[in-house]
Specification:
With 459 residues, this protein is an alpha+beta fold. 38% of the residues lie in helices and 24% in strands. It folds into 4 domains: 46 residues; 90 residues, ACT domain (Alpha-Beta Plaits, 2-Layer Sandwich); 97 residues, no CATH class; 173 residues, 3-Layer(aba) Sandwich (Aminopeptidase), CATH 3.40.630.30. It is elongated.
Amino acid sequence: MTSAKNTRRPHHWRRDVIELAALFTAVAVADAIANLIGHQPDGPYLLIASAVALTATAGFHTWWARRHSHAPPPPPEPAVPDGSPATATAAGGGGTVLWRMRTTVQDAPGSLAALCTELAGLGIDILTLQTHPLARGTVDEFLLRVPASLPAQELGRAVAAAGGTSTWTERADTHDLVDAPTRVLGLATRTALDGAELPLALRQLLGRCSIRSLPAVSVTGRPTGESAPVEGVLEETVMRLRDPSGGVLTVERPHLPFTPTEFARARALVELDARLGPRMPRGRQVLTLPEGEEITVGRADRADLDAAVAMHGRCSEQTLRLRYHGPVRDADRYLDHLLGPRFGRTLAARTASGRLVALGHLLWDGDETEVALLVEDAWQRRGIGSELLARLVAMAAEAGCESVYAVTQASNTGMVAAMRALSLPLDYQVEEGTVVITARLSPGPARSLPPLPYEQAER
């Protein structure tokens, strides 16, 4: 760094002496010329014209000197091997950021090279590249390290100048540095271990999209008419895949059409799930309640349907009404849907004798995530609901969800208190006695709570 003392402008006294000598010389010459011309008939007019010319010249000299002596110096060019402007921009841009970019280029020799040359001209480093062949053209997907000072509009103009069309960009993070085969294998492993992972695996595979599972039969037992061919259907921004457990998995991404390569990967994950059949990790965690009683918390699925129906029978109408927001007589119909792996994950709390006393649901609602709790009346106000909720939120954080929401009644003080106990930023929406509480999953106590790991599965 340069100190303020060293940045002061030095005083050049020699220049002042020379300027004074020049001034006196000019005055002497002017006096001689005035004496010579003043005795002529037109002498006064010539003297006045000379004075005006000298004044204008002096004014111009003063303006020019001030402009060049006080103007800030031009920024120094960074030292780069080739001296090109693009490399200078990258070197002096003050850091870099990661961007994901997808663009369509012509399927012709040199088209990709032209695009890469244009990106290099902006000082952009290409970290990964995937190609998705189409009937006409090729979709190229890049992970780029871009100078932080480079505007996104300039990046788009450069890609368009290189022949790229239908360009889409978004900010990326370090998780995107994992190469595509490794990421797909990891998603396949998680899907193989847990049937409830399929919707999450599809979302992580395809990026920002909404996934809905449309059952073949409604909760009332009527056919919904939802079906899809075995090979699935691809319609630009929507793909429909046959759910092995019945119904249809609909994946929608309005901002970016799916490519045939993405459709083939998604179909392969669904086929893997179909071949493995129903499966669920049977991990258990033992919790000690304040009264000293022990309960176990673990995953639940449709195999626990009878136990869940029995718990409904032990719950009061008020408890069921607060949970399902509808007629109590229809409560049992929702259980088959809630316990299905396509719609989310379910945690169950059981006593030492194995009786089910509480259920906690984490439900995939398109691109949002809902949490819901039901605790048997005799076991309420003992902290079971808070324990289940904390683990459900930890699961949502592990799955990459940005927020979770709960729908309850304003009179359900237990659910409101459990959400507040998460110590997460909360948003409240109240309408006609119904409260929607949204928790943003920023780092906090609930996020650090580990979910039930696969290695704790019972033998």
